[in-house]
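Obj: model holo form, ligand = iron/sulfur cluster.
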Amino acid sequence: MSDSTIMINKIQTDLIKWFDNHGRSLPWRRTKDPYAIWLSEIILQQTRIDQGLKYWENFLREFPDVKSLSMAKESEILALWSGLGYYSRARNIYKAAHILVSKYESQFPKTSSELLKIPGIGPYTAAAISSICFGEVTPALDGNAFRVYSRLFAMSSPIEKRSTIKDIWTLALPLISNKSPGDSNQAIMDIGSTICKPKNPNCPECPLEENCISRRSGIQHEFPVKLKSIKIKEIEKFYVLLKRGEKYGLIRRPKSGIWGGLWTPLELIPEDWELAKTNKNIDESNIKYLKHLLSHRKMNLYFTYWIGDTFPENKEIQWFSEQDLKRLAFPAPIIKILSEKSYF
Ligand code: SF4
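Output (holo structure tokens):
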């Protein structure tokens, strides 16, 4: 078994164990009736649990199943909803009840993809209902879950991006138990509401602590990354192109970090770059500037040729013929510079 499979299995088991011992005891968790769970999910979308509980009980008392709800007048539903706000939710409940009766024989569809066709049911609610009531193995991702997963996986891309949401879904899927997918999802919901809070995550109490990537580096507060919170950092880098006879001197970057494992010309620290100018190893009129934008970095890159036969001392420089250069991997801006200098 690979290390990552062992880790995934461990997280799955830890979540279920934690949920059994510490999951919140909520009335709608004592049933697997999709109608009752659907109502609880819709009511709690923009409402606190203590406030929503009374409404949930009232709805179930007045309309114990989807059929009775479908026979109610819209005004009765709105009256029962009164005080909860966001009345579009109540209108959607009314519409949904009619569709469930007319198209689904008063039964809830069993898969999240089918549940998504019901008014007012979005991806999170669909996954919550299908996993809790019908055992569908799918992650239920609401704001709390996104926060927990983005910290667990230290997701560096902004949470608002569609691709990030997709990535989180893909990474979360193997953590959902095949036997009790609803419990896995509810464990994440509870961890998000009670432990992995936005401001002060209480990591020592968290069943995910051992495997939480951001926690391991002590940077859990930096997640989830949000578009507006990304500060663009500006950095400058200075490169010299070394040529000895017919060969070019290059450096291979360390495996981790930016441009990991790729080849670049020799990078000089700013002081050495200035010194090279003073010593006339660099022709100031022949410096090429390139701007390179990354998601949260603006790189100002400066390139020039090294003049003279005495090269900067660096054991890592390796020398390549023009032919050799073609089989090396370079970062995109370096390719641009090298091709402009007609090296390729
Ligand atoms: S270890 Fe901390 S940051 Fe990581 S999921 Fe748990 S509470 Fe959140």
